[in-house]
Predict the structure of Protein nucleotidyltransferase YdiU.
Amino acid sequence: MSSRYKPSAEPCVTTFDEFVRLADYSLMDTLNADPEATVDGNDHRPRQVFSGHFVPVTPTPLAEPEYVTHSSTFFKELGLSDELAFNEQFRKVFSGDMSATGEPMRQFGWATGYALSIYGTEYIQNCPFGTGNGYGDGRAISVFEGIINGQRWEMQLKGAGLTPYGRGADGRAVLRSSVREFLGQDYMQALGTPTSRSLTLYVSKSETVTRPWYSEDSHSSDPDILVDNPVAISTRVAPSFLRVGQLELFARRVRSNAHPRALEELRMIVSHLIEREYKSDINQNLSFADQLVELAKQFRQRLTTLVANWLRVGYCQGNFNSDNCAAGGFTLDYGPFGFCENFDPWFQPWTGGGKHFSFFNQPMAAEANYYMFWKAVRPLLAEDAEALEQFDQVGRGFPEAMQKQIQKMWAAKLGLTEYKPKLFEELIQLMIDSEVDYTIFFRELSQIPDDVEPLKKSFYLKTSQQIDEQWQSWLLSWRNLLINYGNLPEISTKMKQTNPKYTWREWLIVPAYQQAMEGDYTLVKELQEVFSHPYDEQSQEIEDKYYRLKPKAFFDAGGVSHYSCSS
Ligand SMILES: Nc1ncnc2c1ncn2[C@@H]1O[C@H](COP(=O)(O)OP(=O)(O)OP(=O)(O)O)[C@@H](O)[C@H]1O
Ligand SMILES: [Mg+2]
């Protein structure tokens, strides 16, 4: 997304009325609303939604909302002035009260249904009705679609109260998870990894919900206490929030002949996906079948690049199901995510995520999600054998395309123009043997040292003389390759643009959300600032605080090293 969108230079929207006038629902209106929906969006009880692409629903306003923060960077890109975040009507809308809006913006939002596949296996038990018709946005409600600086954006509140897809939960998000999502999303953008974007964050001064969590110094795997948390609404923004799981829902209905318009609704949602996410990359003059072949290629390209970027920056999504996989190919759902500190290829902060969603397994998880996408779109090609064959071929090529992107990424991390398998495998083994800090290691390596000593700053283990010798010989082979490529200072500069200096360290995030729960947002703002320039050298004070190995006390700490619940 970042590369396709040209940000604005000057803020031009300063009043709420100007903002409202940017609303444009012309694309959403080409889709089908649930025919059983209420006209006023008063639709907050769990129920089955049998057809249609969205359900109009009003958010539930936060009681006594207070401003926590907004993304100044993104406001600037959108051409919104910072004042707007403090505007009374704007604050109302983005804390869930749509009564303040006026035409062309509507006074209700919308939620969408989707299906779930975990690692390529279809699930329906997660729907309380056992049919799949009650699963979807249980607490996310979109409130705005409009064109800003030539780009269509959708704005979605998370934690905005119940929808028909609430499944017996409360529709809320707590401040802890909202701070994490807001900061994580902004940070990913600054890392140059495609992502949904953070807009605003508001908290309730009086409403709380109870969630299982970890007591202080707990080393338990599962939460051991119940905690009252303030509820919050964060707003995220993307060209669309279409997920692979959404396409699957409509394809499942086609397969089971759920209703007479099922195939047409599938066609509509896929063509909507092209319009919303791939318009600039797919020639609209092609036949629909050929557009689908292009869609398969483009999505493959985006998804493989995305996952290669995740590996580059040490990110583990944690729960990369098809319903957490944006069909536009960007990062979505900052729930049980984490960033790898002490290097472990199978790093996984979410206790429910298992090995299959772990750090180095993400390419496999992506392949499973891509397969579900492929399977969902395929029925639309039934009548064009030639296009179907091409479409299938693109699908079969996923593992190879993924591998290419990953190799390109590892080469770039090492300052090489070409992937060297033996060199890479030896490096990974040494990284494991020395238990390196993923970020500090690659950043120190970017200085292109000729000796292992400076790298030791990133080691969690004290290494033996034998390991040190292996490092020396590895460094020698690597440096010889680099010298053949050219100028070391130039390579070093490039490596520093690939290997960030500042990473997400959960033990430095915890104090920020804890402080925020007391009404003090200083640390949230400080993190926003640090995370907005992750590749830059920052002040000595920031370096001393944030460019640090994880302290021993936080290894295996519940809520820091691992978490079972993210909401
Ligand atoms: N507190 C809640 N109330 C209602 N529904 C919820 C709640 N928490 C999660 N859900 C729903 O359960 C499903 C799975 O949850 P998951 O944690 O993947 O999503 P999420 O973090 O809410 O959302 P998203 O994928 O929109 O970022 C989602 O459809 C979500 O809307
Ligand atoms: Mg989700």
Q: What stands out?
A: The pocket of adenosine-5'-triphosphate (ligand 1) is lined by residues 136-140, 166-167, 169-172, 324, 333, 335, 566-567 (CB under 6 Å). The first helix runs from residue 16 to 20. DSSP finds 17 helices and twelve strands in the chain. Residues 430 and 467 are 8 Å apart (CA to CA).
